[in-house]
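ok new one. same drill as before - structure tokens go in, u give me an amino acid for every spot. 510 of them this time. try not to just spam alanines like last time pls lmao
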């Protein structure tokens, strides 16, 4: 079988090219974002741009959209070379970009958002009826169901994304760039997005899909291009490559795609939550036992963050009780929680996981820095601290293995490894892992999943919160689904599927 990675010369003469980027360099202070990167996209195809976090995907697309100018290289759109770079120039050339974080005005209607900046007029006045008519026609044509008069702030995330796509199409985009488009969607909304992409393709539109989700690449794209460390590794026909092969191209080595774990053997209850109510969450009742992983799934913004704050002493509960290891901590602060045996991998590693200006060594003993072995007569025992840190860096493969550097100089994946190393070293009764692989590359994901399973097998109770259903299904022994601040349902791992979880995530009943 011929190689699935091929050069432009082997196929481009048979296709009309929508996008051609050759030898793109882009540097920022202390960072090389793109180095001789190349991307060629044919008209009327869905092309996935994949790579680890920090591989240069978004930077390359921001150059195409005109937000950055390249330091070197050539960009051609529909055969015409771009010589000036700005969003206005790219939009005029037929490029549109749907950003991961939507650029909508919440207080305006759908129609007002779509036509913003190019409003139809009736004399000197805004012609709202014409705007609503135009948006309704586009909605029907592209299969993007929206209510033109609805306020954007009242819409679910999936519908807001449709508004963003309509806004781009209204400006005449022939090439659409979608940046991590499924990050906040339910499984049902993801299927609807795939259908939308198919309709755009049928209309002759070209789509560039920025993603790190291999399942998404396989489900939606015709071809893919892989970036690694800012450079193009290769291009392939999606149907001709496996997820394992794509991962290997992204990371540069073979990656285990499945979590290897034995059947759980749950013990006694460790975390007991009964009728908990607080601002943004509740009432909630559930239990996590020793030796099991309980996953919490749900579209972000349905009370997961508030629940975690209640379970770490950061948010006061109004009603109900919470106990860890039989100790009632309902009205206790963080120090009591940690003393009772909590360890936590927080949602935001930079705000709540690390002190960026502190060294790696100092960060690795935070929370234990007052223990006798690390302090004497008020002074840090540097040798003991550094020995502990060096051991953790080696065991958890934190790179670079320099404990004297500031934590903020580490990559996102290595910052996450450092946090996990510190929290696991506490030998916790309860480990809360909140989005543990968010913004982390495939190689680090493999390592982090193994560490979480190891804690379960050691006998810790693990509460996993993740917006990635594949992660929930791979790790959890039981799955709770949150909707509107409450537990909408519970599934055992053997019966949990993306479809069932998706139904509960949308607020429906099984």
């Amino acid at each position: 079988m011929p190689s699935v990675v091929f050069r432009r010369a082997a196929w481009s003469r048979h296709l009309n090219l929508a996008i051609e980027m050759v030898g793109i360099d882009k540097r920022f202070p202390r960072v090389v974002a793109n180095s001789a990167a190349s991307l060629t996209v044919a008209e009327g195809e869905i092309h996935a741009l994949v790579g680890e976090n920090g591989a240069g995907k978004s930077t390359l697309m921001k150059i195409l959209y005109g937000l950055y100018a390249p330091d070197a290289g050539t960009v051609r759109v529909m055969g015409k070379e771009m010589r000036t770079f700005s969003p206005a120039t790219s939009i005029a050339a037929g490029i549109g970009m749907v950003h991961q974080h939507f650029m909508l005005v919440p207080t305006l209607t759908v129609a007002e958002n779509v036509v913003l900046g190019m409003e139809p007029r009736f004399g000197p006045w805004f012609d709202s009826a014409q705007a609503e008519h135009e948006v309704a026609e586009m909605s029907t044509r592209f299969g993007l169901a929206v209510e033109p008069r609805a306020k954007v702030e009242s819409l679910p995330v999936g519908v807001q994304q449709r508004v963003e796509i309509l806004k781009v199409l209204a400006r005449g985009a022939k090439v659409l760039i979608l940046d991590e488009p499924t990050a906040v969607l339910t499984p049902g909304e993801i299927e609807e997005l795939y259908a939308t992409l198919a309709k755009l393709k049928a209309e002759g539109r070209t789509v560039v899909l920025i993603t790190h989700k291999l399942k998404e690449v396989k489900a939606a794209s015709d071809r893919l291009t892989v970036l690694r460390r800012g450079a193009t590794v290769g291009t392939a026909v999606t149907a001709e490559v496996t997820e394992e092969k794509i991962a290997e191209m992204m990371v540069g080595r073979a990656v285990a795609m499945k979590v290897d774990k034995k059947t759980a053997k749950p013990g006694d209850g460790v975390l007991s939550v009964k009728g908990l109510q607080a601002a943004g969450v509740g009432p909630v009742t559930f239990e996590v036992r020793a030796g099991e992983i309980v996953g919490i799934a749900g579209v972000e913004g349905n009370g997961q963050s508030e629940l975690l704050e209640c379970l770490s002493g950061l948010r006061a509960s109004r009603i109900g009780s919470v106990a860890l290891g039989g100790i009632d901590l309902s009205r206790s602060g963080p120090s009591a929680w940690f003393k009772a045996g909590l360890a936590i991998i927080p949602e935001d590693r930079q705000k709540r996981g690390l002190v960026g200006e502190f060294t790696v060594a100092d960060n690795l003993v935070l929370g234990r820095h007052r223990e006798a072995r690390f302090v004497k007569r008020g002074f840090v025992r540097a040798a003991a601290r550094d020995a502990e840190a060096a051991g953790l860096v080696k065991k958890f493969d934190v790179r670079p293995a320099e404990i004297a550097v500031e934590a903020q100089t580490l990559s996102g994946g290595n910052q996450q490894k450092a946090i996990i190393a510190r929290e696991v070293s506490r030998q916790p009764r309860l480990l809360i892992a909140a989005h543990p692989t968010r913004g982390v590359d495939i190689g680090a994901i493999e390592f982090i999943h193994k560490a979480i399973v190891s804690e379960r097998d050691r006998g810790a109770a693990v509460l996993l919160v993740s917006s990635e259903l594949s992660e929930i299904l791979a790790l959890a022994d039981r799955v709770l689904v949150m909707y509107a601040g409450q537990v909408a349902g519970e599934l055992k791992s053997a019966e949990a599927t993306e479809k069932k979880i998706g139904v509960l995530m949308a607020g429906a009943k099984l």
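The chain has four domains: 1-94+175-251, 106-173, 258-341+428-510, 357-427. and btw Residues 106-173 form one domain.
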